[in-house]
Each structure stands twice: as C-alpha cells, then as structure tokens.
Amino acid sequence: MTDYHNASTEQWLQWDKDHIWHPYSSMLKPAKMVPVVSAKGVRLTLADGKELIDGMSSWWSAIHGYNHPSLNAAANAQLSDMSHVMFGGITHPAAAALGKRLVDLTPAELTKVFISDSGSVAVEVAIKMALQYWYSIGNQNKTRLLALRNGYHGDTFGAMATCDPVTGMHHLFTKVLPAHLFADAPRTAFGESASYDDMAQITDLLEQHHGELAAVIVEPIVQGAGGMRFYSGDYLRKLRALCDKFDVLLIHDEIATGFGRTGKLFACEHANISPDIMCVGKALTGGYLSLAATLCSDRIAEGICNGEAGVFMHGPTFMGNPLACSIANASIDLLLADDWQSNIQRIDRILKKELAAASPLKSVAEVRCLGAIGVIELKDNVDMASIQARFIAKGIWMRPFGKLVYTMPPYIISDDDLVYLCQQIVAAVAEEE
C-alpha cells in the first residue's frame, strides 16, 4: 500500500501528472505544474522553499490573501459545531446571516437569495430562475437568452450557452448547446456615455426578439475571461431601460466583479441600477471554500412560487454549506471593517502608475486598469510556458491567457509588494519583445 502521507515532492508531482486533469489541460501533453505547499498573506510557498507574490488572488477569489487569522478562526469555530448539514428542511445561523447580509449589501430590489456551491451553478440558477419565472406566469414562449460577445459566464452547459461562441472557449459544444442570441460587446469606454452604435444592435435584437427572450445576461462593467474588457456604466443604464421597455429580465453576473474589485462593492453601482437577478461568488468566502449565491427580486420569487410547480426547481447537495457560509460572513466582516474603497483606490493608483511602463513596448496593444484590476493586452498570444517560467524566476505568480497579461492582486498587498509585482510583470513582458 502506498504511503500517501509521506510521499516525496517528486512522487506526488508524478501522481498528479499521471492522473489529475487541471483546468483546460491535456493529459497527453501535460504542462509542468508548480508545486505549492503553503500560502500566507500574498505569498505562495513552493516545495523547494521559493516564495512567489500572488498576482492572481487564486483566480480573483483570495481578496484577503491566504491563511488570514480572522477567516481561520471562523472556519475553526464552525468546525467545532458542524461542517455540513443538508439544507432541505433544515437551516442554520450561518446561512441565515449570510442571506440577510447579501440582501442588505446589494441593490434594494434584490430580496431573495439562493445559496449554491460555485459560480457556474449560480449562473445556472439565474438562468433557471428566469425561465421558470416566465413559464410560471403563463408565458411559455420566453425560452431564449441574449448575451454579449466577449462574455464569459462559466463552464457548465447553461452557462456555456451564454458565453461568446468564439472567444468563450466552448465552440466544440455548439451543436448541443441552446441557441441564444448575442449582441456585440460594448465599445464605449468606462466613464463615457454609451454611443448610438453601442446601443443600436442590442436595441434591435430586443425589439425583434423580446417575445422569445427570457433575459439578458451580462457581466457588468468588466468582461472577465472573455477579454478583460472595461465598458461604460451608461451602457448598463440604457440596457436596464431597454429591458424594462421590452419586458425582458436583466441578469448581472457579478461573480468576478463583486465585493469591491472594480472600486464599487458591486459593479452595478457604477450605473446606479439593479438587475432582476444577480450572481455572486469567487471572493464571497475570501477564497477559502467554493460558495456562490443568486439573488432575485420579489417579482421573480413570487412569479415562480405562484406557478405550476409552486417551488423553485433546484437544490444542490452542498447548498448553504455551514462551513462556507460562516467563512463568507467573516470575509464580509473583514472587507467592511476596513476602508476598502480607499484601499482599492490605492491599488488602482499603483497599477496605473507602474503598468504604464509597458505602454511603449512594441508587443503591447493597450494597458488598462480599473480598481484592483490591471491588464496588459499584447498584440500576439503569449507563450504560456516561457512567460510563466520568467514570472516564477522573478518571484511572482501570474496566469496569463491569450493576449492578456493581467493581475487582480489580493486587497491586502502592500505598496512595496505591488510595485515589485508590477515591475516584474512589465519586465517579463519586455522580454517577449
């Protein structure tokens, strides 16, 4: 019998290579994995003792860094009571408190909360809410969605169908996915009034297809994995008005943008609007455990529950997990106890100042920053293996994709660490020349 607990680094790396499928990876030509054995603050510690400053917040979730005493304490306290209990017919303080807090923090129209176990599931729940709402109130024609080009909403089937068919990484499944509608991604820059050209196509699509459209789904202000694009809050305001005019629901996917990342607690606040349905996740637990939530208005909840089924037809096994909910409450406490807006402004200033050094490089198409997000868009795709090796050699952890070298650092990062992170990003990009 293999002694799993005392395996050498070489042994468990080999097991990983032989058996484990990593995100978007090949089992025939597996990429070399970086062996992380611990993490604290903003640093990841490798098996050989080398430390890397984390520029990714573990895919945007670890906003308070790693091994935070407050989150550790919340986890330990909850473990002493129970780590999990089914949510069917049972409730518990952590979930009840989290639901109330999310309602208090999000736009006033959002009053009902469905707590699930991942961002993709939160999107599935949002889509199902929209579809079941229309079915329940007697309109069975509204079965399609309208999404944006360059959008990304997750890897499960309902979510995949709303991702950009080209840049959303899911074109292999086109023939089996529901056929939804797509409008061009907004081009109006953040802070500017939405142009006529930006609104014309989506207006036409809503006018022509509103009879079959259940909802429009968008990532507000920041389109994430589909291109790391920032766009106008005015576009969102005008889209809200269009959805009202044509009686189509509006879904905001705030999984990447929620909890302060863009400089507002939720990105919809840049437009001073409320969606009918909102998805949150990623930073919800500060990166400790997978947890997500889908919020909706009274209108949606009452429409669904007055319908044929009388209930919302969804219920994951780990829904409302007490351990994750307890940590989520502690993470929200931690965020709100600090002057988080000033902190995000601090990060924004440093990102803009330091990453600007990449603008003159011949390989760089654009540098853009918003809140705690910094993006260097290249003219050509990066060679992932070579640039990641350079990042590690420089003592930082980055995970670019396509033409995009971007950072979403933990909010607790110090000025010195952030300056160093940015300078090493620019240096590594310069070596691509």
UniProtKB/TrEMBL annotation:
The keyword S-adenosyl-L-methionine applies. It catalyses: (8S)-8-amino-7-oxononanoate + S-adenosyl-L-methionine = S-adenosyl-4-methylsulfanyl-2-oxobutanoate + (7R,8S)-7,8-diammoniononanoate. Pfam families: Aminotran_3. Substrate binds at residues 59, 152, 282, 315, 399. Its cofactor is pyridoxal 5'-phosphate. Catalyzes the transfer of the alpha-amino group from S-adenosyl-L-methionine (SAM) to 7-keto-8-aminopelargonic acid (KAPA) to form 7,8-diaminopelargonic acid (DAPA). It is the only aminotransferase known to utilize SAM as an amino donor. This is Adenosylmethionine-8-amino-7-oxononanoate aminotransferase. It comes from Zhongshania marina.
